[in-house]
Amino acid sequence: MVAVIEAPEHQTLLMQQTFRAVLTALSEPLRAVSIPALPTPLGTTSALWAMALTLWDQDVSVWWPEADDDHWYNTLFHTRVTRAASIEQADWVVLSADHPETPNRLGLVSIGVDERPDQSASVLLLASRSRTHVHGAGPGLLHPVEVQLPLPEAIVDQLMLNHARYPLGFDTYVVFDQAVMGLPRSTRLTWGDETCTSL
Amino acid sequence: MQSRFHSVDTLRVARLHWLGICVRVPGDEVRHYWEGFERPDIRVLKAPEVGLVMTQGRTHGTGSPFLFGEASMTRCVVGDTEGLGLLGYGQILGRDKGLARAIADLDLLAQDVELGPQIDLWIAAWADELQALDRAEAERVQATRVDFLTLVRGED
Asked: I need a labelling partner for B62 at 20 to 30 A (CA). Which of A9, A81, A93, B91 fits?
């Protein structure tokens, strides 16, 4: 039997704080912003669950290939999202940065159409253990920044391609245990001087 | 706890019946019965919370529906503590959190083999009272009813 977890206490307040944090993350790209901690279903990070409760409702569809029955039952119970039939049709996509299929899957995510680039999908990327040295510039960054992005090179490659199609493209959130980093399609990434493959 | 329903469909039909009655019974009546009832431990999955629902209206029977206005509502979801996956829902118009919780508890325990029959007795009694009220209201309206009759004007 699937275990349903309790909604967090003071849920409205927590979700308002999370929403504010997500807005901050998108408006100040490449900076990790803290998300309030809360009880989560087994195997889900606190930040991912907080974002799910805050941003998903019955009007959106989600494609989450690595979610098990427990995750889906809790997600459907608490948010009433619909399960997308395919990644191309999803409004939200949840992918693990360390999964070998993720770079290919990012190539299938909806990027909107010329008339409505806002209808593209949003991607929640669970942070990787590896780091890639990149430079970032664009709206929300007063000066170019240099960061160790917690994503493998193949995914950074896809994000560079994503920016090249601007204003089309998807917006990405890199999700840590208790923080989120925004990577909107408007952020331009370039390779840094060195790449390290472990923490 | 042990569910007395063997399929989702039979539970849905029974639930429609008892929840439809619970939300029409005055809140004090539900609470009165509820407070005197010895009940097992219950997990609160979604604590009572107040929100808004958009209501629809029609100008007449065949009119197009339009958005009439927002109404406040309160909802609560509870579950069993034994991991059986049984859920109880309480959704009412208004802002009475205690009543939403009581109805959610009642919805959960009405599914139980042992406690369900006791709750069925309350539901049956409330259903009789509501039926009597509906009948009295129908009779009151009937007494002042006017049947309009249109006569053929005879132009043709």
From this structure: B91
